[in-house]
Structures are given as structure tokens and as C-alpha cells.
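User: Please fill in residues for this 469-position structure.
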């Protein structure tokens, strides 16, 4: 039972151009948005353009919501839920597309800056599951915010413009790497070696005499601090309340002679978040309420106020119940139980270089469309959501009727490894939920790859799901 290649539906010419044009919009988004905050700001901007209103403003104005209304709500600048209100009461449930907008990277520590042998480095703590050795000798950029004591926030984005400087983590030269090359992969580069080199120019003043120059310590660091003060009005202590992410520098690029793929940072899981939001904006309002839920912290266990485990979504559904009719706690519970969700997260694409980790009948392939993972987990499906057969049956009908290409997959061979998503957290409410998303090559590497037609089929499949489920 092999699934057909989706490109067959899009022969050269107009049909194929649609796929390529959609991917180009995504490529630009991915180049621009490398943090959960940047993604949230992007989707708020797009939501406003598409006629969505800020839910908190609706609440503050004491207004009600009616079928066809579009609203969004931001969770602390790092996550977002957007809704299109349906004709039926909210208690009948919501069709949800849930994806995450955080990606593996390195975060600056709270006290990051130090000088060593006239070089200044920033100490990091990596975020999410990474092969640390992949993050050395690459051009890196700094993205994030610095929150100052006076309540203002400075936005940082350095390393993306063509004339910006870039940063990086060094690696040992091969000539001196005899010991290193004997180490296990996990130890080749260790966490505390992921310090980012950011400067080497000491601060000498014109009128300093030789004696003075010798007396002064940490002159390179002083110079970096001078630059930070002049350009961003931040001081060393301000790092204490900063969130700065170190990410690969540069734009996402078309990949392959045929430009059928995209290489970029953070496809996991922005390649699902982007079509989820666009599908919500494009879907025709219907009986049921639709939602796109774009959350943070999935890569570290969906924890915290902005992760899927927080009450943000539940509380927002309660607000919707109140804004569309009479409020009752029972209606909220019914609403959550009656939801249908696609936990939209990436799948591991079959890699011809590493065929041994996959079981070929149950692997995801580039070009074969939206991927469904009935279960994820590891060691006997442990920790998995394991979606119901009936729900998968309903989805097959919806996708076949809409001529959407899809495939099913497991994350590798049995006992090869495993992983998790937000599916089981949504499942806690008793709602129907299954993992579905786009296949990714090089997952969690600095530069990941996806197939453009898979992205397009995800978008089409998400619209079909919202309108028909
Ligand atoms: Mn993911
Ligand atoms: Mn991931």
C-alpha cells in the first residue's frame, strides 16, 4: 500500500505555480520569523489584515461575538490562539489546528558575557533536543528581547541583514582533534562548549598612555559593552532580564536544482504553524467554530505559561462561551470534550542516507503529502496519544473527498527512538486528536528541509479539516 506522489497532481505550468507560490510565502515567513515572539508578532499582523479582532479588546468593550466573527488572543507575546466563530454553540466543540512555534536553538544564559585571552564570548544553554556538534562553525544571529528595569523592552535582531555582522561557535581544527574524534557523538561537542564568539577588539582611547593601556582589564569586553550601550542602550546587568536566542543566520532557501524543497531554520514546527494559520484565515466559516492554536515550549515538554499545558486555551474557550451565549462551566467542559483537533507537528522524513532507522511501509516520504501519526511515543507507544480508529476513518473520508494527498507514518522503527507532541495534552480533555504534519529531513539540525508539495497539501488538508470535520 504505497501512497502516490502528490506532485502528479501539479504538472508544470499553472498548477505547479500555485504550489511554488504558496511555498514562497512560507519561505519569506520562515526567513523573517526565527523565534516564538517573532512568529506571534507575524501572525498578529496577518490576523489583523484578515479581519481578526483582538479578543481582549472585544471583552473590554463588553461586546458579544456572532457566527462568522474572527478573533485572536496572544499569550504573553509567545503564543497565540485564533478563532472563526461558527453557527453552532461553542459547546458543540471546535475544530482545532494546533502547532508549535518554538524551535531548537541556543539561548543566552542570564550572565553570559565574559572575556578570555582578548576574545569575548556569550555563554549559552541549548534549548530542545540538538546534536550539539551540528551547531559549530556556522554563521549565527541573535534574536530576542532585553527587558530593562524602567519597563521598556529592547528588541534585538543582529546577523540577518546582508551587512550585519554574524556570530558563531568555534570547533577544534582537525589537526588537533585526535582525542575529540575518538569521542562518542554526544560528547564530541559538549553543552558548555557552545559559547558564542562576539568580539576581539580592545577599547583603547587616544589619550591612553602605555601604562594605562596595560592597567586596564577586560578591554575587549568593555568595548562590546560600549557598543551595546551605544546601539541598544543596554548594560551588562540588563542580560539578567533578557531572552536572546542564538539561531542560524540568513534566509531560508529553495533547495535542489528543481527548487522542490526549502532549507530553513525551524521548519519544526513552523511548517505546520504557517499553513494552520493560513488555513484558518482561508476556510469558509461554517457550523462549527474553527481555531488555530500556536503554542510555545513544545520542544522542552510544553511546560510553562506559554506551553500547551497552561490553561490559556481552556480559559480562552471559556471566554468564547461567555461571548457567544450564556456562560456555564459545564458548557466549557462540553466544548473542550467535543473538539476535534489535528496536532500539527512535523514527522521524520525517510532519509535515503539512513534507511536503517525507518520501517519502509510505515515511514513518511517527501512528496507524498500530509503525514498522519496515529501514535508517537517510544518503548511500546509509551507517552503516546494513540488516536482512535474512528477518528482516522473520518479524516480519511474528508481528505479523499477534497483530493488531498496524505500518508501515514511512525517515528522510525520500533524501539529505534521516539518523540512527543502536544497531542496527548489536548487528549486530556477527551477530545478527538491525531498528530498530522509535514515530513522534515534533518529535523532539529540548524538547517532543516521540507518538500514544497507536502506544505501545500498540509494547507489544503487543514482547510478541508476545518470546514468538514
Ligand atoms: Mn515539533
Ligand atoms: Mn521538535
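Assistant: Residues filled in for all 469 positions:
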Amino acid at each position: 500500500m504505497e501512497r502516490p506522489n502528490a506532485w502528479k497532481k501539479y504538472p508544470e505550468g499553472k498548477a505547479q505555480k500555485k504550489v511554488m507560490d504558496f511555498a514562497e510565502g512560507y519561505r519569506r515567513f520562515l526567513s523573517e520569523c526565527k523565534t516564538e515572539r517573532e512568529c506571534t508578532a507575524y501572525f498578529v499582523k496577518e490576523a489583523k489584515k484578515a479581519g481578526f479582532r483582538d479578543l481582549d479588546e472585544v471583552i473590554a468593550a463588553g461586546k458579544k461575538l456572532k457566527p462568522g466573527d474572527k478573533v485572536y488572543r496572544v499569550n504573553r507575546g509567545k503564543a497565540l490562539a485564533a478563532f472563526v466563530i461558527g453557527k453552532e454553540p461553542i459547546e458543540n466543540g471546535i475544530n482545532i489546528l494546533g502547532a508549535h512555534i518554538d524551535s531548537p536553538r541556543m539561548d543566552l544564559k542570564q550572565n553570559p558575557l565574559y572575556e578570555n585571552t582578548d576574545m569575548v564570548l556569550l555563554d549559552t544553554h541549548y534549548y530542545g533536543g540538538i546534536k550539539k556538534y551540528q551547531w559549530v562553525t556556522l554563521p549565527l544571529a541573535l534574536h530576542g528581547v532585553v527587558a530593562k528595569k524602567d519597563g521598556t523592552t529592547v528588541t534585538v535582531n543582529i546577523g540577518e541583514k546582508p551587512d550585519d555582522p554574524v556570530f558563531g561557535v568555534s570547533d577544534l581544527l582537525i589537526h588537533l582533534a585526535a582525542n575529540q574524534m575518538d569521542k562518542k557523538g554526544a560528547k564530541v561537542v559538549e553543552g558548555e562548549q557552545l559559547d558564542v564568539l562576539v568580539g576581539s577588539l580592545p577599547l583603547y582611547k587616544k589619550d591612553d598612555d602605555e601604562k594605562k593601556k596595560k592597567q586596564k582589564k577586560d578591554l575587549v569586553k568593555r568595548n562590546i559593552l560600549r557598543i551595546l550601550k551605544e546601539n541598544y542602550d543596554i548594560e551588562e546587568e540588563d542580560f539578567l532580564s533578557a531572552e536572546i536566542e542564538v539561531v542560524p543566520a540568513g534566509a531560508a532557501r529553495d533547495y535542489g536544482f528543481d527548487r522542490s524543497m526549502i532549507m530553513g531554520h525551524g521548519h519544526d514546527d513552523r511548517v505546520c504553524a504557517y499553513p494552520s494559520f493560513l488555513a484558518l484565515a482561508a476556510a469558509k466559516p461554517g457550523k462549527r467554530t474553527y481555531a488555530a492554536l500556536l503554542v510555545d515550549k513544545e520542544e522542552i515538554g510544553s511546560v510553562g505559561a506559554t506551553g500547551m499545558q497552561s490553561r490559556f486555551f481552556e480559559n480562552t474557550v471559556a471566554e468564547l462561551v461567555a461571548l457567544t451565549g450564556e456562560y456555564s462551566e459545564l458548557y466549557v467542559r462540553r466544548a473542550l470534550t467535543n473538539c476535534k483537533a489535528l496536532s500539527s507537528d512535523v514527522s521524520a522524513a525517510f532519509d535515503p542516507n539512513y534507511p536503517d532507522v525507518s520501517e519502509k511501509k510505515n515511514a513518511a516520504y517527501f512528496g507524498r503529502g500530509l503525514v498522519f501519526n496515529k501514535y508517537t511515543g517510544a518503548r511500546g507507544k509509551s507517552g503516546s496519544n494513540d488516536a482512535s480508529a474512528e477518528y482516522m476513518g473520518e479524516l480519511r473520508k474528508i481528505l479523499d473527498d477534497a483530493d488531498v494527498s496524505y500518508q501515514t507514518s511512525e517515528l522510525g522503527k520500533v524501539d529505534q527512538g521516539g518523540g512527543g507532541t502536544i497531542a496527548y495534552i489536548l487528549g486530556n480533555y477527551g477530545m478527538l486528536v491525531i498528530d498530522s504534519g509535514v515530513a522534515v529531513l534533518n529535523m532539529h539540525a540548524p538547517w532543516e528541509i521540507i518538500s514544497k508539495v507536502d506544505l501545500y497539501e498540509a494547507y489544503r488538508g487543514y482547510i478541508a479539516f476545518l470546514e468538514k470535520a
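For context: The chain has a mean pLDDT of 96.
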